[in-house]
Design a protein that fits this description.
Layout (H helix, E strand, L loop, with lengths): L2 E16 L5 E16 L3 E5 L6 H8 L7 E6 L2 E2 L4 H4 L3 E4 L12 H11 L4 H14 L15 H13 L5 E5 L7 H16 L3 E6 L2 H7 L2 E6 L2 E6 L1 H5 L5 H13 L1
Parallel strand pairs: 3-8, 3-9, 6-7, 7-8
Antiparallel strand pairs: 1-2, 1-4, 4-5, 9-10
Amino acid sequence: METVIEVRDARREYVSRSGVWKREKRVVKAVDGISFEVRRGEIFGLLGQNGAGKTTTIKMLTTLLAPTGGSCRVLGCDTFGEEKRIRPRINFIFGGEMGVYRRLSARDNLRYFSNLYLLPRGEQEKRIERILGLVDLAERADDLAETYSKGMIQRLQIARGLINDPEILFMDEPTVGLDPVGARMLRDIIRRLKEEGRTVLLTTHNLAEVEELCDRLVIINKGKVIARGTPEEIKGGFDTLEDAYVKLIEGVSA
């Protein structure tokens, strides 16, 4: 299968200053030499605890951060230096309730983002109707987003992320803060995206979500990859993925 994301020894360091007058400098390694590949049409997971480096990795892949070492390539292009070739072909969905305008309806939100992508007016309306149906918001399309539940807001964010018809959709903790029903609906939508042939890369620390959705994954701890493969391969001889995950983390920390 075609490789659409290629990460080779990627690193991202930050300089932290502390002490009197901020004179003490410390280098923080948020991502410390990770490598992996994502194939077209698969759901790929980045699993790890808070602070493991998941969000930093996804920001490098979406051209929001430049790696300080190694390389990140998306759709055959370098994420640092060829950003303009990548951005029209991808989109990024945040966890939580950021990314949409709450004083606008779902339909008007999508019209606004359609205009940012310079979509022709005739194509806009057809695409908006199709996407609203995909995320189960057609019946509430003309209600203000401020009247929506958290789950509906998150589904609207997915709709916003699909407006440019991206080949790859990046999701950072997409079900964070949702109740079980909302999270289930969101996972159903992610599966539908795969059925459409889209590639989805999601970050999460939800093990049940990984087992249910991901074709393959990498586990990141303290900026390093500590395991990779399918959920079954990583689970190995353990009864659950959670047991295998805890053992891996404990082994690294020992």
